[in-house]
Design goal:
225 residues, 4-stranded antiparallel β-sheet, Jelly Rolls, alpha+beta, single chain
Length: 225
């Protein structure tokens, strides 16, 4: 596998000079993970910059009682560990592979050095952090202020935004159990919410496939009406 060629296709590195990419690729490490394998543990002391190349990971927090709250899903091209590369040494969440995955590790000190010489890389990082902050604020609002059906409706509407306009079918990349962790719910409560929304003609669910039948009703539900 040519790491440099893979990096050239990742949004994070768009606009970065070929010379800088060669410097980063020369010290990058390629690692594979099996499903449910821990990539980083919460509070691990690390100074690396991570990028998902293949598969899917989740970032999550665990409570002392064993409850999980999924913070974010990561797919090919998504970086993580930015805080450990630039600011702190302790990773604030855990990262786990949900399916066979491959991750690229770049020393944080190297990323910092290159970023100081490559304004475009810094701009790309800032844009990524800005989007994630916005998503985190939306998650906090949903968990704090909305009931399970409204959280589910908000999640589905957000997922629809990632598809071309007019698409009304969602093929979830995660199980309903993992979706429940994102919504701060239980699988049983999520199943009840899906059944109720199906009974009301808002959607039709079959496994990981969800067909949105009434987008307006879904929007009203997300807004708490």
């Amino acid at each position: 596998m040519d790491i440099l060629e893979r990096m050239k296709k990742i949004d994070l590195f768009q606009g970065v000079s070929s010379e800088a990419l060669r410097v980063l690729a020369a010290q990058a490490l390629y690692r594979k993970y099996v499903p449910q394998e821990m990539v980083i543990g919460e509070a691990d002391f690390i100074r690396s910059f991570y990028i998902v190349l293949e598969g899917r990971l989740k970032l999550y927090k665990s409570s002392p009682e064993g409850r999980e709250q999924t913070i974010q899903l990561l797919g090919p091209g998504d970086p993580f560990g930015l805080c450990t590369a630039f600011a702190t040494e302790a990773f604030p969440v855990s990262a786990m592979a949900l399916e066979p995955s491959a991750v690229l590790l770049i020393p944080g000190t190297l990323v910092e050095t290159v970023a100081l010489q490559e304004p475009r890389l810094l701009l790309n990082i800032i844009q990524i952090l800005s989007r994630r902050l916005q998503n985190s604020m939306a998650l906090i609002e949903s968990l704090a202020l909305k009931e399970i059906p409204a959280r589910l409706a908000s999640f589905l509407l957000h997922s629809l935004l990632q598809h071309p306009e007019g698409v009304a079918r969602l093929d979830l990349v995660i199980t309903q159990r993992e979706l429940a962790k994102i919504l701060g719910s239980t699988p049983e409560a999520l199943s009840r919410a899906l059944r109720k929304m199906a009974d009301e003609g808002i959607l039709r669910a079959s496994g990981r496939t969800i067909h949105i039948l009434d987008r307006s009703a879904l929007q009203r539900l997300a807004e708490g009406e």
